[in-house]
Design brief:
With about 170 residues, the protein is α/β, with parallel strands linked by helices. The chain has helices spanning about 25-35, 50-60, 80-85, 105-115, 130-140, 145-165, and strands at about 15, 40-45, 70-75, 90-95, 120-125. It has a single domain, classed as Rossmann fold (3-Layer(aba) Sandwich). The protein is built from 6 helices and 5 strands; from the N terminus they run E-H-E-H-E-H-E-H-E-H-H.
Length: about 170
């Protein structure tokens, strides 16, 4: 990892989702990364419907500078595991609540966290795309002071929102 300006000018995070129906939730990760000055790329690739394309993407991503993957999927939620099985880069899984019913995301959560030894997937909450972006940013911040500074400023801003003296007090 370097800290050159050109290093931050290319996508560092590859965001995948298994269905175009989930883009409304998944785009929150890309928006949060952009707010932190981190470029990303977002693709719809399914572990079940387009497995060859998932493989091609994962294998080619490091050559383009991708250092962290965020994989979002609902129901069977095998996307994060399919990605993690093909790379040594960090993979963050985002289990999604299925719009077509299901178990409110519990099925996806269990499928995402229950990985075999040696194939780790860091997992955030159901529909936790924004936290996945924060986790990716923290991973990328190692050796990148510019990202660390933006994370610190964002964290301080969040604290101010809750610590503001003009917030109503309950007595």
């Amino acid at each position: 990892m370097t800290n050159s300006r050109s290093d931050l000018d290319k996508p560092l995070v590859g965001i995948l989702t298994g269905s175009p129906n989930d883009l409304g939730v998944v785009e929150k990760a890309q928006e949060q990364l952009a707010a932190l000055g981190i470029k990303s790329e977002l693709l719809v690739l399914s572990a079940h419907r387009t497995p060859e394309r998932v493989t091609e993407y994962v294998k080619s991503a490091p050559k383009r500078g991708i250092e962290v993957f965020i994989a979002c999927a609902g129901m069977a939620a095998h996307l994060a595991g399919a990605v993690a099985a093909q790379t040594l880069l960090p993979v963050i899984g985002v289990p999604l609540a299925s719009a077509s019913g299901g178990m409110g995301g519990l099925d996806a959560l269990l499928a995402t966290v229950q990985m075999p030894p040696g194939i780790p997937v860091a997992t955030v909450a159901v529909d936790g795309a924004k936290n996945a972006a924060y986790l990716a940013a923290r991973i990328l911040a190692a050796g990148r002071p510019a990202i660390t500074e933006r994370l610190a400023a964002d964290f301080a801003d969040q604290q101010r929102k809750y610590d503001s003296p003009d917030k109503p007090r309950v007595r």
